[in-house]
Write a structure and sequence with these properties.
The strands form two sheets. A two-stranded antiparallel ribbon has the order 1-2. The chain is mainly alpha-helical. It is globular. It is built from nine helices and four strands. Helix 1 runs antiparallel to helix 4 and helix 6 packs parallel to helix 8. It is about 55% helix and about 10% strand.
Length: about 210
């Protein structure tokens, strides 16, 4: 990560923490009010092929201490009504501003993978994680709807794992490596702008113009 990108992450995350403080407070209260588990959900992710960290989100599912792996259709029954609303607007990811400030992730980059997949594909993630992982990125914006559709059709943990490993990981990695080769400051700004647009109702979102790459 360049010093300029890190400086941008620090300043912009501090700004958003202050600007979105009322939203964070309301979401915290709503999740706490459900009363069926912790407010935050922490998951180990990988910053580098060997270095892990805890990625934080607002909890969107009924608490299950044995939960592991990616979310597929077999977990859909555990998503709370509030959790579904938070996921739709990506508000569940607001605690990751703390991860950005700490330097675990950047605003833009490949989504940080679970340790199990890094160990499963060490050569692939050795390339992908040359970029600091991010809260959003090219693969997140382009491929996420396809991934959701593929995984939501899976009805067992085994089916979800097979679809994620054989279909989703290779396709996302290609987009992550494309971003790595073509990354510019203005590409990062564009990706951030289209990510934050998800916070707003569709009818008032700005129209997407131009190409990401």
């Amino acid at each position: 990560m360049t010093p300029g990108k890190r400086l941008f992450d620090i300043l912009f995350s501090l700004y958003l923490m202050a600007f979105l403080a009322p939203v964070i407070a309301v979401v915290t209260w709503k999740v706490w009010r459900q009363g069926d588990g912790p407010i935050l959900y922490g998951s180990e992710r990988m910053k580098t092929p060997t270095q892990g960290f805890t990625l934080w989100k607002f909890r969107t599912m009924a608490h299950d201490p044995g939960d592991q792996g990616v979310t597929g259709g077999h977990k859909s029954g555990r998503i709370t009504p509030l959790g579904a609303a938070l996921r739709k607007r990506r508000l569940d990811e607001l605690p990751q501003l703390w991860n950005i400030l700490k330097g675990d992730v950047s605003f833009v980059g490949p989504r940080p993978p679970l340790r199990r997949y890094v160990e499963m594909f060490p050569d692939l993630y050795g390339l992908v994680l040359r970029s600091r992982p991010g809260v959003t990125g090219l693969a997140s914006l382009i491929y996420a709807p396809h991934e959701d559709r593929i995984l939501s059709a899976c009805r067992t943990p085994e089916e979800t794992e097979r679809a994620y490993v054989t279909i989703c990981i290779p396709r996302k990695a290609r987009l992550d490596l494309l971003y790595q080769r073509r990354r510019t400051f203005w590409m990062d700004v564009k990706l951030i702008s289209w990510t934050t647009a998800k916070f707003f109702p569709r009818r008032i979102r700005p129209r997407r113009k131009g190409r990401f790459v």
